[in-house]
Amino acid sequence: MEIDENTPAATPPMTPPSEVGEVPRKPPSWPGAIGTISIVFGSLGLVCYGCLSVQTMATPLMVGMVPEDQRPPTPQGIQLFVQIFQMCAAAGLSVWLLIAGIGLSRRRPWARSHTVGWSVAKILLSFISTTMGIVFASATVDQINSQLSQGGTPPFTVSIGVMLVFVAIALVWALLWPVFLLIWFSRAAVKDEVAAWAAESRAMI
């Protein structure tokens, strides 16, 4: 039997690959989550502390325009200076947290060091503010009670104990996020992930 040279040869059957290729690694979602929360906290802090900074610095000027017998009791001297410092420092830290949050959401290698640095600075400022709150607790209570009693008999008065409770609550609230960030970024897995970001950045250069 003769074979026609023009007849195409039979196609061998397709053999499925016996080895599965490497599955691409899905990037973790925590940088976006933590970065977004930091952006929100930083933005809110910038608005709040920025406005409080302006208000604290403008209060003495505004009070000076009121007749002396009608002026409400306000912080003076070192107490006023401390309040201005606290508000301005908190506004600056809010900007820092905002920048760090943007870096985390974009997986930038420098974001970890900025976040850790912000956390340490925030904890220090929180303890400084708490100490100043305790030192000036008596003066603050007198100012609040004087303002409440300007219109007659006050509906309630503030005591030193109540003021110290508010100071303690403010300290706990201020420490929640920076302490969490310090614990999170001290984990070995997180450090390895940030190192991978740095490797990817160097590979793109």
Q: What does this molecule look like?
A:
There is one protein chain. By secondary structure, this protein is mainly alpha-helical. It is 71% helix and 0% strand. The longest helix has 35 residues, at 30-64. 14% of the residues are buried. The mean pLDDT is 85.
Give short descriptive properties of this protein:
single chain; 205 residues
Indicate the low-confidence ranges by residue numbers: none
Biggest sheet character: none
The percent range for helix content is over 70%
> What is the number of helical segments per DSSP (H or I, 4+ residues)?
6
The tally of beta strands, per DSSP, is: 0
How many domains? The number is 1
Order of helices and strands: HHHHHH
Which structural class do the helices and strands define? mainly alpha
Mean pLDDT: 85
* Quaternary state of the chains: single chain
- The radius of gyration is 30 Å
Q: Into which percentage range does the β-strand content fall?
A: under 5%
Spatial gap, N to C terminus? 66 Å
Shape by Cα distribution: elongated
